[in-house]
Amino acid sequence: MKSGFVSILGRPNVGKSTLLNAILNKKVSIVTDKSQTTRNNIKGIYNAEDVQIVFTDTPGIHKPKEKLGQEMNNMAYSAAHDVDVNVLVVDASEPFGPGDEYILSHLDIKDCPLILVFNKIDQARLDKVISLKEIYKEKVPHAIMIDTVAKDRFNVDLLLEKIIENLSEGPAYYSAEEVTDKDVIFQIKEMIREKVLRNLRDEVPHATAIYMEDIDWDANPIHIRASIIVEKEGQKGIVIGAGGKRIKSIGSQARRDIEELLSKHVFLELFVRVQEGWRDNEKSLETYGYKCKK
Ligand SMILES: Nc1nc2c(ncn2[C@@H]2O[C@H](COP(=O)(O)OP(=O)(O)O)[C@@H](O)[C@H]2O)c(=O)[nH]1
Ligand SMILES: [Mg+2]
Q1: For the chain, which terminus, N or C, has the lower number of CB atoms within 10 Å?
Q2: Structural domains of the chain, with CATH
């Protein structure tokens, strides 16, 4: 059989996680319209006849403001090494800019097959895509190029073909049942965080993290108590919303996803806690699972 490791890299919000979910036909990585939704490297395992591909979805590479951002970039940089193929996702509807230059200068991807995915072509103008490709052709001449609409699964099978062409014979690294390397608690926290992001605007989403207080698996329904961490007192009020309306919708949306994940009824209790400057605090980053292990 053919097998190998493939990393999905790119700027924030270009559709990396959407692409991974489309490849797997399953949601292993959360998606929102906010940048920097993904904060960890997340493996997604693709199994087909005689093929296994271990994908890694990564945080979007950006100019970091806090230590959290540095850790996220480091995770993405580390994922680009020791793989068989790198997939660099580009938003085809945006012109080439400093953020794209930043990635190409910071990523060490020269010695590895590279597939450039021009995603969101549903929103792009053909002439703009052509000139964008000209720029990339000059900067990374060895790259294979492909257009996709990850959210509609357009050209995803073609992308898989191109990846498989670049893999060699190898063993299965994971059992066929495993879809991700992340445990169930990570997945529950991510489902809550996705709903937090989707219900908030401006700077507040970036200031949040989820802390699992406890889970009573023996209770019926399963009792989950989790905290939404924010950085400022004022953000606490925003998350809760007038009359507790916002936190109630976050809770009920997240509960539906968690119940689907666990195939069990769930009682989800959410709290909001303020922790000043957690994004710049090494210890907090460790507590919330955002330290890049090198
Ligand atoms: N129009 C369009 N939107 C997309 C496409 N792929 C992803 N998106 C949207 O782009 C946003 C960011 O997607 P996400 O996968 O979280 O990006 P990531 O930060 O790179 O992982 C979400 O609102 C997606 O629904 C696409 O092919 N076309
Ligand atoms: Mg993502």
Answers
A1: C
A2: 2-169 (3.40.50.300), 184-287 (3.30.300.20)
